[in-house]
Amino acid sequence: MLRRFLPWLLGLLIACLTAAGFWVGGDLRDAQAAEDDRAAVLWAAGTHALNLLSVSHRTVDADIARVLASSTGSARAEYARNAAALKQATTGEKVVQTGALRAAGLVSMGEDTARVLVAGDAVIRWEGRGGSPQERFYRWSMEVTRAGGTWLVSKAELVP
Question: Does domain 18-158 have CATH number 3.30.70.2570?
Answer without folding.
Answer: no
